[in-house]
Amino acid sequence: MSIITQKPDNNFFSIAGVQDVVHKGRTFEPFIASDYDDILKISNVQNYRIDNCIITGRNENREDGIDINRTCQSINIIGCKVCSGKRYAVTIKGGCTDIYLTDMLITGKRGKEGVDIDIGNYSDSNMIKTTKVIISHVRRADGEPVRIRVGLADKPILLNTNA
Question: Which residues, other chains included, contact 160 with Cβ-Cβ below 8 Å and sequence gap of 6+?
Fold first, then answer.
């Protein structure tokens, strides 16, 4: 459910209920980004790797660049360029665990809350704590520090990230 429109999410690319999937070298970029809530929505997925991809709505989509939700496990986002939507570049919530963001470049202006990565925000699917998030070598294209907010989640491990 989109918290902006109060209707079911309209996401550019959704992956749900699968395991052992790899996306490498893809570009996730809608022609009209303002038609979408999230650019990449990941729900109830295990062992998913996103490698050297571009995820962008050019700051025009309603919510997030990447939304990881609903008890995802072992999600690896490596070497990607991610543009913030109107809310966040990345949100991780809903009891997800073993999430690894590394060598990520966050582009575009921050969303209205001024946060780049949101961990443990409200999830309409469950109120399970998000755990085991590692953020390594993540930076913003403008050189500003990466802003991370932690809610119903363990504190993430930060490695070589200016946050």
Answer: 136, 137
